[in-house]
Amino acid sequence: MTPDDVLARIDPKEVVDLALALGNIDSPTGSEGPAGEFVYEWLGKNGFAPKKYAMIPERFNVAAWIDGSGGGHSLIFNAHLDTTLRPDAVWSARDPKDPLYHSAWVDGDSIYGDGVVNDKGPMAAFLVAAKAIKASGYPMKGDLIVSAVCGEISREPIEEWQGPLFMSKDLGVRFMVTHGVVADYALVAEGTGFGIVGIEPGKAHFKVTILTDTPRYYTPYLPRPTGLADSPNAIVKASAAIAAFETWAYEYQTRNTYKGAMGTIVPKASVNAIRGGYPFNLTSAPQIAAFYVDARILPGANPMDVRDELRGVLRHVGVDGIVELFVYRPGFEAKGAERLIETIKRCHAQTFATPPAIVGDPVTSMWRDTNAFSELGIPAISYAPRATSHATTKSFKVKDLTDAAVVYARIAMDLCSQERGPIMPLGAHPDREIVASVMRRSGRD
Hints:
By secondary structure, this protein is an alpha+beta fold.
């Protein structure tokens, strides 16, 4: 039995058909159950013994093993079941029911659909690759695990939005790993344009509450003129704070940009939600308003430092307010992943004519499940197809998808056949050297 015998079993049509089947199961974060059930049943039909890992019964992770003979390195293939946009997200997208977010199709040489490119297409590729390895009986020393998880896309509890529907990361990879899905390495099949990504920022979410110390003015009594920052209307005061925030945000990302061997992080911050007053009661200016900030932070950074900077923004414009941290998820630079990286490079070269792509900093500046694996001590790398049109047309080339199945099969057969020597122990910690290096460069040490 040779690797070529395994690769001959990979049917490109099966890869595409599986990606389409998964992409046409609408599974926005919070509603992954039907997609998870499909993967669970597909694995069972193809000779695996899949298991479900669920903190919440209707939102579960799926994993299945190909057991090695012993003494080799083990590998987890990982992708997520959830997609980005719920059809009821009327205050997030102009057309939240756009079929591009809820279905999948092939047109010409490209495959379309948000769910396919993020992230069920790469999932289909490694599932078919694993099927070929299992069906062929290819001998491996280490275990190969395939996994499909819920909750990769952020949906976080806050205020009245509570309960299982508003949970994400904690019931996905984190829950699955802490309940037994453990290996020496993890390959997260997230779009990188077949580049190798081993560093990602953390994230901190803040609620900034703006308050007024003036009466709750009935509109006919509203005093004018005033400046934005001293308006008796909390929404108007918030606009002054947001304008100052935008200036700070650019300075923040510039000052904290980190360039390392694993890639570049440009940690951006953005106001992505705002509320104040009631549209059914518009007769008085509100005394309270809030805006909500997504801030990306370097591996090893302290989110309370960002909180203090946001407090400084309010002081700068003379606006009373409260800055509250309500989500913190650390970022990581992969440690001990050298063997996996070298294996990916070797197998990539056997599949493609050009070396792994140089990955743009927006890709290395986002939070993915590699962070969850790294936090739990499993060296993790992202590697998968991604088109330059990924963000706008939600598509990539069909051939990229089918090539992914081939390279994933090669990576698994190669890595899981290598003798298992000393590796980095579980329980890695955030790399504060990154923060220190940025501070030295900016003169803040």
